[in-house]
Amino acid sequence: PPDPPLPPTPPTEAAWEAPRRKGLEAFGEGNWLMAWTQLEEAERLGAKDVSDKKVQAQVKEQIKKGQDEKDVDKALTFFNKALDIKDDDAVRTLIRTTTFRKWQESAKGNEGGDWAKAAADWKKAIEFAEESQLEEMRANHKYCATFSDAVTARTSKDWPRAVELYTELAKRPGRYAATIELERDNAEKQLKAAIETAAREARKEFD
């Protein structure tokens, strides 16, 4: 009797199909490193429809690293890598908001110590602020710049200027109210003493 017909041979899976499948599964699970490495392998083996997903996964991997990073400078490095991979408005927004946070944190850290640096930091923060934040940021910049000028006036013994600036700061003292009051009182005493000394010197000339 004739041999029974052979069962049909199942079609052979193309080499790229397994890494493509693994890559898309990983993409759906948010495993970005696995996703883009598998999709890149699938692309190398001949898959034609994975390039966009691969790039998306590469971008998302850098964004995730940046969002997990506590250090703002390191976070910005990851976000800029994402932008190098693909120019994207969402990434640009992340860079802007993170840069704003960097200068805001630096300014707050310098307040009470290096007022000139704090003022410079607030000025940089203004460049990256949202419209709704601008008024507050400008007020912070002005406050720190005024405080810096007041300290300069005090150290150079320009007492009239020191009194004027500490009086201005007293209108919005914040958590430095005690320092401002102390410095203004001192500047007023020094100014009064300087005026009295000048008057005595003037009288001596006429005696």
Could you explain how this protein is built, in words?
The radius of gyration is 33 Å and the shape is rod-shaped. By secondary structure, it is mainly alpha-helical. It has helices at residues 17-29, 32-44, 51-68, 72-85, 89-110, 115-128, 134-155, 159-169, 177-206. Helix 4 packs antiparallel against helix 5 (89-110) and helix 8 (159-169) packs antiparallel against helix 9 (177-206).
Q: Indicate the low-confidence ranges by residue numbers.
A: none
Oligomer: single chain
**Number of strand segments:** 0
How confident overall, as mean pLDDT? 91
End-to-end CA span: 148 Å
Give a brief outline of the structure.
76% of the residues lie in helices and 0% in strands. The chain has 207 residues and is mostly helical.
List the helices and strands and how they pair.
Elements: H1 17-29, H2 32-44, H3 51-68, H4 72-85, H5 89-110, H6 115-128, H7 134-155, H8 159-169, H9 177-206
List keywords for this structure.
207 residues; rod-shaped; mainly alpha
